[in-house]
Structures are given as structure tokens and as C-alpha cells.
Design a protein that fits this description.
Order of helices and strands: HHHHHHHHH
Strand content: under 5%
Distance between the termini: 75 Å
Shape: globular
Mean pLDDT: 87
Number of strands: 0
Number of domains: 1
Radius of gyration: 19 Å
Length: about 230
């Protein structure tokens, strides 16, 4: 009888910890939207001509800075510096939205396209996070497939940066949306099933999923629904 009670108490404690991590992650995720919006607003007023002229160099430089900050967040995940670095990353990523937001606003329906991309991203997040949370299904089996897909997506994106094929760009965006939707399921499932117990790292993972879905969805909408007349 006693082992059963101990097992029940252990299960209850584990569920309580998982719920706390999930709750803190969603709260922090909401907080990251503030520096993201500030960065995006500032990015609208910055001239990104250098990035347009040197796309490969700019991409590699940005990736180097971001991965450096990601490593800093991972190293400080259990203290306040990790939170500060996380907010700093979301500000920089908001700033990096500048070029695509500027491009969107050149369309007559640019504001509508941005709103549709934001709304679509929110709908995807709410739907998939609810599926992962309510069904309690373990999506950890997706991890290896998603990693292979991510590597292939990065290679395809780098190749297209050289060749600049519009159709390939659209295909890459469509695949990216599906890939990061899969990562959303995976990352929320990791929290629900105790695979991720640190809310700072959980927030970073889910934020990147949302960010990439938004960027690629906006890219598709501009290509398919943009009105230049």
C-alpha cells in the first residue's frame, strides 16, 4: 500500500512541476512579445540595404550572433541573466523582421497581410499547443525527423540565397511552416511529458517556432495575395 501512495505522490508532484513549467513558459512567451514588437517597430525605420547587397554574409553574421546568444541563454538558464539574454534575443529577432515588414508594407494591402500572418500564426499556435497539452500524446518521436528536416531546410535556404529562385523560395516557406508546426507540437509535448523542465529554454524553443511560422507565412501571403495595384 505504501509504495502505491509514494508512487501517487510522485506522479502528482511531477504533474505539478510540469504544469508550473508550462504556465511560466506561456507567461514568459507573452513577455517576449514586448521586445519583439519594439524591435520590429525600430526595424521598420532602418535601412537594410547592406543586407540586400550581401545576403549570404548578412545571414551568416546574424546566425553567428544568434547562436552565440543562444549558448549564453543555455549557460545561464537558471539565473536572471538567462531571462535578460532571452529578451535581448527576441528584441534582435524583432529588429530582423524589419526587411520583410518593409517589403509587406509596399503592398497596398500590406497591413492586412501582416495581420493575416499574425492571426494565422496565433491560430496555429493555439491549435497545436492545445493538441499537445489536452491529448497528452507524446510527440517526442518527431525529434529525429524534425532535426533532419531542419538541416535540409537550412541547406536549401542557403542554396536559394545564391540562386534566388522565386518558386523555390515559396516551396521553402511552405515546408518551413509545416516543419516548425511540427516543432511546436514537439516542444510543447516536451514540457507536458517532462522532457524540458526549464521555462527559459522552453520559451526560447517555442518562440523560435512561432517566429519562423510567422515569417514564412507572411512570405507566402505576400507572394500569393500581395496587391501592388
Amino acid at each position: 500500500m505504501q509504495p502505491e501512495i509514494q508512487l501517487s505522490n510522485s506522479t502528482t508532484q511531477l504533474e505539478s512541476t510540469q504544469n508550473k513549467v508550462l504556465r511560466n513558459t506561456y507567461m514568459m512567451l507573452g513577455l517576449t512579445m514586448i521586445p519583439t514588437v519594439i524591435g520590429a517597430y525600430m526595424g521598420l525605420n532602418i535601412n537594410f540595404a547592406f543586407m540586400a547587397q550581401h545576403p549570404i554574409l548578412s545571414l551568416l553574421g546574424m546566425l553567428a550572433v544568434m547562436f552565440g546568444m543562444f549558448m549564453g541563454i543555455a549557460a545561464n538558464r537558471n539565473n536572471a541573466l538567462g531571462v535578460v539574454l532571452l529578451l535581448g534575443v527576441t528584441f534582435l529577432l524583432g529588429l530582423m523582421l524589419g526587411p520583410i515588414l518593409q517589403a509587406a508594407l509596399h503592398f497596398n494591402n500590406g497591413a492586412q497581410l501582416i495581420g493575416m500572418a499574425a492571426g494565422g500564426t496565433g491560430a496555429i499556435f493555439l491549435t497545436l499547443s492545445t493538441i499537445a497539452t489536452v491529448t497528452k500524446k507524446d510527440f517526442s518521436f518527431l525529434g529525429k525527423f524534425l532535426m533532419v528536416g531542419l538541416v535540409m531546410l537550412i541547406l536549401a535556404s542557403l542554396a536559394n540565397a545564391f540562386f534566388q529562385v522565386p518558386v523555390a523560395s515559396l516551396a521553402i516557406s511552405a515546408i518551413a511552416i509545416m516543419l516548425f508546426a511540427g516543432y511546436l507540437l514537439y516542444d510543447v509535448s516536451q514540457i507536458v511529458h517532462g522532457g524540458e523542465t526549464n521555462y527559459v529554454m522552453a520559451t526560447l524553443a517555442i518562440y523560435l517556432d512561432i517566429y519562423n511560422i510567422f515569417v514564412n507565412l507572411l512570405n507566402l501571403l505576400m507572394a500569393l495575395s500581395g496587391d501592388r495595384d
